[in-house]
Amino acid sequence: MACSDNLTGTLRAPSPLRPDELGDAQALVAEVGWNQTERDWRLFLELGRVQAIRTDAGRVIATAATLPYAGFGWISMVLVTAAWRRRGLASKLLRAAIDDLRGAGLVPVLDATPAGREVYRTLGFADTWGFARLARPAMPSACAVCAQNDSLLVQPITDEAWAAICAYDAAVFGSERSRLLAGLRGRMPSADLIALHGDRVVGFLLGREGRIGSQLGPLIAEDAATTQALLTRAIATATGPIFIDLADSKTAIRAFVEAQGFALVRPLTRMVHGRTSPFDDGARTFAVVGPEFG
Fold this sequence. Notes:
Layout: E1 2-3, E2 11-12, E3 15-16, H1 22-32, H2 38-47, E4 49-54, E5 60-68, E6 72-80, H3 89-103, E7 107-112, H4 114-122, E8 125-136, E9 153-156, H5 159-173, H6 178-184, E10 193-197, E11 200-208, E12 214-221, H7 224-235, E13 242-247, H8 251-259, E14 263-273, E15 285-287
Parallel strand pairs: 6-7, 12-13
Antiparallel strand pairs: 1-2, 3-4, 4-5, 5-6, 7-14, 8-13, 8-14, 9-10, 10-11, 11-12, 12-15
Helix pairs in contact: 7-8
């Protein structure tokens, strides 16, 4: 059913994005210069929901995604093609996403740019903590093998360690998300790492390829030394562009990654709807998956 929605031209009512429309969705990503790939969109279709607005001819011109976790749900991928911006489409999709999550008994959460933060505050979102996207351009490999701390073992993730990693992650993130982590595993093999102290998990890292560069995260660890060991191993042989979304509180790691050639791209703020306390453990969260997944 079509509706004019007070716009010049005719738009269809929002409805779920179909797999055969991923090309349109990815065109929106390319238009704004974001890093997601079709594999990321497929994770939303598998684990969450993407609502899309289309022209009467069937072209997708706006999207918003929701991803449910236990107790809360993520909102992201709010995109509108340039020709249809400033006509209320993003607000319409965002309000619908909030309503859908709240209707399911979940607290909406999102990661906001500085401009988006002001809009989201008017809709009932409050700041919890900040992080920064940093990027390193393509550069030659640093080393093939990196030294290990005698008391810390950093090694590739094994199937035998996977259940322990997922449990460790759930305790820090505030919800079980093993299906999402499984969808990330293997997409950047050099970053699929676990840190062990004896037989105890004290940190892990995953990564994934992106449209522009690789993305590191999540990176969850007991301390900065463990985090530095994981990052050193992950970027040792990486030659292409790399992004990491690093918590503002981790100043020592910020200095370390900047020394490796990373520079600030933009600040972001994690926000929750209708409350002021976060769900996640900020002490052990060094880098998030990304604003799209949490």
